[in-house]
Amino acid sequence: MASSQQWSSKLGFLYATAGSAIGLGAIWKFPYIAGTNGGGAFFMLFLGFTLLIGVPLLIGEYILGRHSGSDAITTFRKLAPKSVFQATGWLGVITCFLILSFYSVIGGWSLLYLGSSLTGQLSQLESDQFAVRFADLISNPYLAIGAQAFFLALTAGIVSQGVQKGIERASKWMIPGLFILLLILAGYSLTLEGAREGLAFLFKPDWSNVSNDVVLFALGQSFFALSLGVSIMVTLSSYASKKQDLPLSAITLGGMNIFVAVLAGIMIFPGVFTFNLEPSEGPTLIFAAVPSIFSTMPYGQVLVFLFFILFFFAALSTAFSLLEIVVAAFMKGDSRKRQKSSWFFAFLVLLMGVPSALSFGVIDHWSIFEMTFFDAIDYIVSNVFIPIGALCISFVLLFKMRRRALFLEFKQGSVFGRKLFIVWYTIIVTIVPIAISVVLIDQLLGLNVLSIFFS
After folding, report:
1. By the 8 A CB rule, do 228 and 235 touch?
2. Where is pLDDT greater, at 93 or 297?
3. Which residues are within 8 A (CB) of 377 and not within 5 positions of it... i.e. 6 or more apart?
4. 368 - beta bridge partners?
5. 244 with 13: CB under 8 angstroms?
6. Domain range for residue 240?
7. Which pLDDT belongs to residue 304?
């Protein structure tokens, strides 16, 4: 009988990791980041980074986690003792904590929209009124913080139940439902008047508008969407059995992630151009665009309710993993500490997240590097902490694990053998660290060299 601290099946592992990766990273964040960074060129960069860097690094994180069988902090302390890389686990835990502080705000927004659709308030609005209605909701400090607190309470309640009974059980039915509804919505969006313009924006690259920031955002999104660089996948794979095919799981998850991001883009951008919304609307884009699309559909109010239920589930599935990494690090294998740790850290996340929740109302005039508090936290973790974490993980794979140990873990339970391992190992020791280093150095030093390649 499988332990409660191990996935019950290969499919359970895939669902749990998919819940972390495919959640809001693909559905909420990809459309708005693509919209604010030019569309097609950003998508092509995101695609390239995901295939050449993201998936190989995902395999590496899987290997580290299953090889260690420990939480993130313990894993890097074991593999890289008395070196700067032993701090990689701490960096991941801190980053997950910060991500959850603003992700829980989005989860709260989904709850507010669920409430509005249940009470019929959304059905009374015209397509051009949804953005105003949403702005009114999230600018109310009591609603914003209350919804965030309720979302975190649900997250803590599920994580406190453990790996199988909590995270895996919830993910098994949420992820398939989300796929089905995304397919329906994307198909309907293709019938809208602005479909051709929306698809051209998403898939036709204009390389003349690519800057260092666009390249950095594309790299950051490829990591963010796969939950890389923060040791989430290290921790989740520590619960994987030796029969799990890690390379195949990573390739499958990478493909699912790209597919969902494309579906989300097809779902959003035709509606954006049909209803004269701004692609660069920012974090609130999906909340303005989706109800507008639904308002033109038969049974639209029923479907908008179903969508935001599933959107809420996507937010929860991501939140499970983020909180699990923090909780697991402080449990140190003692399952008796799980319940108290889950609630304690959820409360700390809420305190940290209050300024993000208020960034669209009470403190919208606060500015950090010319960004709201919400945007500043998002930018720092997505484009600084996560790439640095990913770089550190690639160095641990390169310098702190023997090649034979990597090969044995790579082929354990896998249909792939030495040939694919050689390809993976070549990428992980050359392309991955070099590409991340070049993008980070170019951005941090303000050299603007990368834009030369796209002009």
Report:
1. no
2. 93
3. 98, 101, 102, 356
4. 371
5. yes
6. 10-454
7. 76
Residues of the chain with pLDDT > 70, as a percent, come to 86
pTM assigned to the model? 0.84
Q: Which amino acid is at 437?
A: S
The total domain count for the chain is 1
Q: Would 345 be classed as within a structural domain?
A: yes
Q: How would you class 365 by CB atoms within 10 Å of its CB: exposed for 0-12, middle for 13-18, buried for 19 or more?
A: exposed
Angle between helices 300-331 and 285-294 (to 10 degrees): 150
Query: Is residue 2, in this structure, part of any structural domain at all?
Result: no
Kindly list the distances between the CA atom of residue 306 and the CA atoms of 101, 178, 231, in Å, as whole numbers in the listed order: 25, 10, 32
In a domain, 408, yes or no: yes
Q: Give which of 289, 341, 401, 425 is closest to 162, Cα–Cα.
A: 341
Residue 79 and residue 62: Cα distance in Å, rounded? 14
Q: Residue 216 in contact with residue 439, Cβ under 8 Å?
A: yes
Burial of 293 (0-12, 13-18, 19+ CB in 10 A): buried
| Three-class DSSP category at 92 | helix
Plot region of 3 (φ>0 → left; ψ -120 to 50 → alpha; else → beta): beta
Residues 442/212, Cβ–Cβ less than 8 Å: yes
Task: Output the domain CATH number for residue 329.
Answer: 1.20.1740.10
Rounded mean pLDDT of 121-137?
Answer: 71
Inside any domain, residue 218: yes
How does DSSP assign 257-315, residue by residue? HHHHHHHHHHHHHHHHHHTT--TT--TTHHHHHHHHHHTTSTTHHHHHHHHHHHHHHHH
Look-up of token digits 């790299």: 219
In this structure, what token pair is assigned to residue 33? 């980041």
Nearest to 24 by CA among 288, 203, 250, 264: 264
Q: Are 165 and 329 spatial neighbours (Cβ–Cβ below 8 Å)?
A: no
